[in-house]
Structures are given as structure tokens and as C-alpha cells.
Amino acid sequence: MPEEKGPKPLLSGVIYGECVYWITLIGMLIGIIGMVLYFFGGKHFFDAETVISGLLSGKSATVIWQEAAGRESLHGHWYLHQLSYSDAIAMLGIGICCLSAVVGV
What we know:
This protein has a domain at 46-96. α1 packs antiparallel against α4. It has helices at 11-39, 48-56, 61-69, 86-103. 62% of the residues lie in helices and 0% in strands. It contains 4 helices and no strands. Keywords: Membrane, Transmembrane, Transmembrane helix. This is DUF1634 domain-containing protein. The chain crosses the membrane at residues 20-40.
């Protein structure tokens, strides 16, 4: 029985896939670096224990921000101004991964 060949993918789809792949991979690496720094005692913006206990006890986001970061909740891309903190580096990685989905839209 002869082998059937499927249609070739469009060049635009291949280019999009490659771009999304590399942007996502870079974002994941940055996020992992941020989390490794966080877990090994790097300087952090949030107190992790306060965040987790606040989430599990059902507190509002505003209260958790106030208790964990010592200030009112920041909006938008707050981590861009705090890149000396390990958890801000991890958030940058997450933001870059989200950007990869926007590339094709």
C-alpha cells in the first residue's frame, strides 16, 4: 500500500510556530531562574508564607498584597520596576510566556 503524504504546512504557520516556541522557551528559562533564586534565599518582593496562608484562609487579594509586600496592591507590570527581586524575575518569565500567545494574534 502506498504511503499517503499530507499537505505541507504553510510557511507562515511554520514561522509562527518557531517564534512562539523560542519566546516560550526563553520565558520558561527566565521563570525557572527566578524561582531557583527565590528558593535558594534570593532577595524577594513577597513573603511566600504570608501569600500561601492568605490564599488558603480566603483573604482578598488586596489584604494579601498588603500583608505580603507591605504596600497596597500594584497593578499592571509591577515586576518591571522590581527586577532586582527573584520573584519579579519569575514573573517576568511568566509575562514573556504569555507574550508568546499574543505574537500570532
